[in-house]
Specification:
alpha/beta, binds pantoate, 9 strands, 6-stranded parallel sheet, 11 helices, 3-stranded antiparallel sheet
């Protein structure tokens, strides 16, 4: 793996690769890599000649009250995992390199209002502008490429896809299925915050989403009832505080009057220091041991 720490070196590395006729895959991350990230790198390695993994904990996407300082950092483990999964280039800039005038000196912000104001955006108001701004910068540095993002952050994926379309970035965005632990918990760097008791309770989030899917598959198409079914599951757990559960159109992320194919179920639950999010298609009734295939749509009830 060739490690680059400056924007100039990173851009030059990928420009050189393309000049030699090699295709480029990009996997933007904030480090603390787990099997979910590894699956993105492996997919990129199957589809591209060069695979660049970026590791940067982006301060712009954290509110002052959030976990920026505590966010898990594991540079050696990240380098090893990236290489094992097939990365050929690492980009590990520090904050001064990404934001030479300081994070408050970044005067440009990219936002995708209509998709970013609901769910995660409602709970974390400046979050997606911070994500889009850093991803736009990474895309500008990387140049033409395929960029891989996990469906665990489905709203982020939708926002980035729209940004790429609206601003004509020469980037093909590839969404990849959520990777889950055997008990169904979606892999996330923030799972490291969980105490043993919280870790045992955490699959209640995907359990709630699957209860919502089962209600839909069983014939319920009322969004309020499906939200209530999901909330009841979380609220019955002695551990974990519900932030939100939602059923929305997967393309627009807007609420629907009648739930149907193409809808998706979303939830966020706080377990102590960890705020976990997850989502599944409305007709997903897979059991805990089966991977979420990430399909949107499918059979009607
Ligand atoms: O999903 C993440 O890890 C981050 O939001 C991203 C896309 C790397 C931007 O900082």
């Amino acid at each position: 793996v060739r490690t680059t720490t400056t924007t100039v070196a990173f851009r030059a590395e990928l420009d050189r690769a393309r000049a030699a006729g090699r295709s480029v895959g990009l996997v933007p991350t904030m480090g603390a890599l787990h099997d979910g990230h590894a699956s993105l790198v492996e997919r990129a390695a199957q589809e591209c000649d060069e695979v660049a993994v970026t590791i940067f904990v982006n301060p712009l996407q954290f509110a002052p009250t959030e976990d920026l300082a505590a966010y898990p950092r594991d540079p050696d483990g990240d380098a090893r995992r990236s290489a094992e999964a097939g990365a050929t280039v690492l980009f590990t800039p520090d904050e001064d390199e990404m934001y030479p005038d300081g994070r408050d000196g970044v005067l440009t912000s990219v936002s995708v209002e209509a998709l970013a104001g609901v769910m995660e955006g409602a709970s974390r108001p400046d979050h997606f502008a911070g994500v889009c701004t850093v991803v736009a910068k990474l895309f500008n540095l990387a140049g033409p490429c395929r960029a891989y993002f996990g469906e665990k952050d489905f709203q982020q994926l939708a926002v980035i896809r729209r940004m790429v379309g609206d601003l004509s970035f020469p980037v093909e965005v590839v969404g990849c299925p959520t990777v889950r632990e055997p008990d169904g918990l979606a892999m996330s760097s923030r799972n490291r915050y969980l105490t043993d008791e919280e870790r045992r309770a955490a699959p209640v989030l995907v359990g709630a989403l699957r209860a919502g899917a089962a209600a839909y598959v069983g014939g319920c198409t009322d969004p309020g009832s499906i939200r209530r079914t999901m909330a009841d599951v979380v609220e019955a757990s002695p551990v974990g505080t519900l932030d939100y559960v939602e059923v929305v159109d997967a393309a627009t992320l807007r609420p629907v009057g009648v739930v149907g194919p193409g809808c998706r179920l979303f939830g966020a639950v706080r377990f102590g220091r960890a705020r976990l999010i997850d989502n599944i298609p409305v007709d997903d009734t897979v059991d805990d041991s089966a991977p979420d295939d990430g399909d949107v749509g499918g059979a009607s009830p």
